[in-house]
Amino acid sequence: MSDFFSSNFDTLPKALDASALSNTIIAQNLANVETPGYKRKEVDFENYLRKAMGDSGDLRMKTDNTKHISNYPNDVSSVKPRVRTVEDTLITNDGNNVDIDREEALLAANTIRYQSLSRLMDMTISGYNTVLRGVT
Amino acid sequence: MLDIFDTMNISASGMTAQRFRLDVISNNIANAETTRGENGEPYRRKTVVFSEVLRDALGKSQYNSIEDLNGVEVSRVAEDMRPFKMVYDPSHPDADGEGYVKMPNVNVMREMVDLIGAQRAYEANVSSINATKAFANAALRIGRG
Amino acid sequence: MAGGVDPINNINSLDPIKRIQKLNREKTEKAGEAAGKTEPDFQKVLDQAIQEVNSQRKASTQARNDFAAGKISNIHDVIITAEKAGISLRMTMEIRNKIVDSYKEIMRMQL
Q1: Which residues contact C45 (CB under 8 A, 6 or more apart)?
Q2: What kind and span of H or E run contains A42?
Q3: What is the ipTM metric for this complex?
Q4: CA-CA distance, C62 to C59, in Å (whole number)?
């Protein structure tokens, strides 16, 4: 990303993608709440992004810190959400491990997260538009 | 990546499956006292078996990518092969020599519990569709300021 | 507060309306002074405002990234940080516009 567009233009769309993916995965989990042998799935993303951002949370490369090996353009661009099958939760007699209560809670939380992220994306874009509108 | 409509189809398949299950449960309840069915035997309880649907139906049991996910389906309707209930009721027209009637192997209380479960699962899929709609609306607001 | 430049460091503590009024007062005072020592003062005012905007913008960008990474769980923290940046930005735009107006008026008077 050029310096004109802030790093938000990298991170927010990715986070939105991950959240949308989570929604699809949760839909699959809920559709299969009674399917024998079905193991629920989950999306990993936030910890990957956190790692890419480094300990300081700063996306810029710190040339004076030898321990900080992440390089902003490479690390963040390679961050991707990943789907994982969860094998180790409580299961019913038929091998299904979907807890409908928990899944519905995840649905609600993820929906709010998506709405929050899209609001932040909107504000990021609006910031630029404010400046550009002022230039007449 | 699955789009909004594909995700809604997943939830819709869940709703269809639970509705079907609801029908089967209702049928069990309606026939809880049917001592003589079509084959002359008492009504036998039925259950539905669900299975996960993956787009590529080439015998894949493990999905390989998000593109495979396609919800759920009722793979078959199974008959509950547990024995019929023997109820003592000499006045019943179908009572045997000793006054026992072979009754369907339906436990209405159990069916009611399953009914509530099916309803709950159905509504969970409805919540999922509503969430997906909220996603679409939220995305449309980006850039509106 | 007579004459001088309002320190933009207090940008967070002053009522925006009062600040505009102060700018108008400055504009009139500067127009009264007339003789061409206008540019350096305008420059300083604008620079300070821009610095404030930049630091707000950085904080805002960082907060959004932190939210995306799950480091912040309260969306309101992020929104408030972002709104502060937005307010600073719009305030700076306003300052810039006032400066341009003042400059134009001074140029008119000198003709």
Answers
A1: C5, C8, C95, C99
A2: strand A41-44
A3: 0.84
A4: 5
How far C2 CA sits from the closest chain A CA (Å)? 30
Option in A19, A20, A30 nearest B11 (CB): A30
Quick one: DSSP state of residue C98? H
Chains in contact with C, counting 3 or more C-beta pairs less than 8 Å apart as contact: A
Query: Residues of A with CB below 8 A from B141's CB?
Result: 118-119, 122
The helices-and-strands tally (H runs, E runs) of chain C is 3, 0
Domain ranges of chain A: 8-45+80-134
For A132, the enclosing helix (H) or strand (E) is helix A100-134
Task: Give start and end residues of each alpha helix (H) in chain B.
Answer: 4-30, 108-140
Q: Which residues does chain B have within 8 Å of residue A23's beta carbon, measured at their own beta carbons?
A: 7, 128, 131-132, 135
Residue B26: which of B2, B5, B45 has the closest Cα?
B45
Q: Do chain C and B touch: 3 or more Cβ pairs under 8 angstroms?
A: no
CA dihedral A7, A8, A14, A17 (to 10 degrees): -160
Give partners of A (≥3 CB pairs < 8 A).
B, C
- Convert the pLDDT of each residue in C44-91 to its tens digit: 878 888 888 888 888 899 999 999 999 888 888 888 888 888 888 888
Say whether B125 and A30 touch across the interface (CB within 8 A).
yes
Contact C81, C60 (CB under 8 A): yes
The pLDDT, as a whole number, for residue A70 is: 42
> For chain A, how are helix, strand and coil distributed in percent, rounded to 5?
55, 5, 40
Distance, in Å, from the CA atom of B101 to the CA atom of A105, rounded to the nearest integer, reads 48
Conformational region of residue B112, where left means phi above 0, alpha means psi within -120 to 50, and beta covers everything else: alpha
Kindly report, residue by residue over B71-80, the tens digit of the pLDDT.
999 999 999 9
A positions 19-78 inside 8 Å of C (CB): 46-47, 49-50, 53, 57-59
**Tokens 């004109």 found at:** A4
